[in-house]
């Protein structure tokens, strides 16, 4: 572990700059990568769902959801 630290941070002469890198820049980069990975996974799931809906596999479940919505709307009508 100490060798990795020496390799990555030895070329930075200023301790203040090293602190900024370790406390601000690296966490920002890691957060951006994590956001990208999670977003990619969510979009992959959304695209798979879209493909299934287009092919008609989920058509029946959508009809049931619409019917449930209509039943719920009858029970709780919107005030005018």
Automatic annotation (TrEMBL):
InterPro entries: STIMATE/YPL162C. Pfam families: STIMATE (PF12400). Keywords: Membrane, Transmembrane, Transmembrane helix. The chain crosses the membrane at residues 20-42. PANTHER family: TRANSMEMBRANE PROTEIN 110-RELATED (PTHR31735:SF3), VACUOLAR MEMBRANE PROTEIN YPL162C (PTHR31735). This is Uncharacterized protein. It comes from Phrynosoma platyrhinos (Desert horned lizard). The lineage of its organism: Eukaryota, Metazoa, Chordata, Craniata, Vertebrata.
